[in-house]
Specification:
Two copies of one chain form a homodimer.
Chain A (H helix, E strand, L loop, with lengths): L2 H10 L6 H12 L4 E2 H9 L7 H13 L3 E6 L2 E6 L8 E5 L5 E4 L4 H4 L8 E12 L1 H12 L2
Parallel strand pairs in A: 4-6
Antiparallel strand pairs in A: 1-3, 2-3, 4-5
The structure holds manganese (II) ion (2 copies) and zinc ion (2 copies).
The site of one manganese (II) ion has 5 residues of chain A, from loops.
The structure holds a DNA duplex (30 and 30 nucleotides).
DNA sequence: AAAACAATTAGGAATCGTTACGATTTATTG
DNA sequence: CAATAAATCGTAACGATTCCTAATTGTTTT
């Protein structure tokens, strides 16, 4: 996913172009990681001081609807990121410090689809691995060093 | 996990016995499924009309701390259930209608622990399968039948 | 370019789940 | 029973998200 592609999809779906929408998309293009609504708001308010929370949430929602963004809930908050370029279904390692992700090519559902029946209708699943990325670990260690 | 065992653990850890705590535990013993704090509150308020939200959340928290309850976040809400009797690490199919679960004996981490390194420190993971249990599916179909 | 129309927005209030608080009550111990 | 610490109530505060309405803006049509 990238900004121009996203803007095209947006147009096709009948949504209007606004500078704020472009900049929101640009933010996700720059920061290749999960962002909270608050982080998005703070970032956009640098250029648009009056920007409203409603606008952020509404646009995050429509972009998610169009599969331009993907959302996950971490620690009680919605987190958004550009949808992965990989077309195939996959999962993520997520750094809980900075929101950066790494892809896991395999999906656990492949191994147990057979066993999961008995009248239970599967509608979705969530598989995420949490931790701290190498970069954040270095940062933490430095902080701890000069206490 | 069961009520008397839970009450013992509670005592050992220096927590006081209260009738409310016993009834909260009894609720989880009866309802073998995920419950929200609200459901717990509503249920206990039948016998204790003045029961406060604070009391519910505090007790859910300490019981989780003692591994008497386990918690997961579903659709933006904390959900609690009695910890599984199975000692081994495992995962769940969860009915999003009623909170009932079925166990999945395998853990996807076993298959990819080898590949997950590269400086990323894993601290946790979440694997849950969502859907509708056979019972809830029947209920829904009946409802749909006489519209 | 102006008018018409629908989509978008700001700003703030409302809602929801959860946590925090001080004053009062209760369980436990001796 | 008295002393002590823990538990509770009632309510307020909180942060994230949603909802509302009047004003503004982007787009399409004349
Ligand atoms: Mn990905
Ligand atoms: Mn289980
Ligand atoms: Zn990181
Ligand atoms: Zn069910």
């Amino acid at each position: 996913m990238n900004v121009t592609k996203a803007l095209n999809i947006m147009k096709e779906q009948g949504f209007k172009y606004t500078a704020k929408r472009e900049e929101l998309l640009q933010l996700f293009s720059d920061e290749k990681r999960y962002l909270t609504a608050k982080e998005v708001l703070n970032s956009l308010q640098k250029n648009y001081p009056g920007m409203s929370v409603d606008t952020v949430y509404r646009n995050l929602a429509i972009f998610e609807e169009m599969d331009i963004l993907e959302m996950t809930e971490l620690e009680g908050e919605m987190h958004f990121r550009f949808s992965c370029s990989t077309t195939a279904h996959h999962h993520h390692l997520i750094c809980l410090e900075c929101g950066k992700t790494r892809e896991i090519e395999t999906c656990p559902m492949d191994w147990l689809n057979e066993n999961v029946d008995g009248g239970f209708e599967v509608t979705g699943h969530k598989f995420e691995i949490y931790g701290m990325c190498a970069e954040c670990k270095r940062t933490k260690q430095k902080e701890a060093a000069h206490v």
